[in-house]
Design goal:
155 residues, 2 strands, 39% helix, 7 helices, mainly alpha
Length: 155
């Protein structure tokens, strides 16, 4: 094996390492100075919604077989809702109910019917309201919340 293709890095210079750490600390302090006070006081929200999961499916909810250490930690360090009430047993209308804070009979969106949320109603959804209040919002996973043509305008 030839050493010509391998680069051996010299040991780090202690003074250079110390200076780099000091610069990093200074950078963090300066960044904290420029963060608006209102952002520092507001809580973060992570809303996790799972599909087809009944009561007691996670370790934090009493299941001794299922191993869910990350969800258990989130539940322990955050807010865990130990009761769930649904407006529909179908995913699409249930998700829309959560996003709009409305019963299915109000929003009118149901499964495989060609119905969707009107843009005017979506503008009043909690993700949009949070974004308008200065929060960063995002969505990962199964959406099933159609927005657009065919939507209702009651929202």
């Amino acid at each position: 094996m030839s050493l010509a293709n391998h680069v051996i890095a010299p040991p780090p210079d202690p003074l250079r390492l110390r200076f780099s750490i000091q610069c990093l600390v200074l950078f963090v302090c300066v960044c904290q100075w420029f963060v608006p006070h209102s952002f520092a006081q507001r809580p973060n929200f992570i809303f996790i919604l799972t599909d087809d999961q009944s009561h007691s499916m996670m370790g934090c909810d009493g299941n001794e077989v299922t191993q869910t250490p990350n969800l258990d930690r989130l539940a322990r360090e955050g807010v865990f809702f130990d009761r769930a009430y649904i407006t529909s047993a179908i995913c699409t209308p249930s998700r829309i109910s959560i996003l709009l804070s409305q019963f299915e009979r109000k929003h009118g969106v149901n499964f495989n019917s060609g119905t969707s949320i009107a843009p005017e109603a979506w503008a009043k959804s909690y993700p949009v309201l949070m974004r308008n209040a200065g929060y960063y919002t995002g969505y990962v996973g199964k959406n099933h919340a159609p927005i657009g043509k065919g939507g209702y305008t009651s929202g």
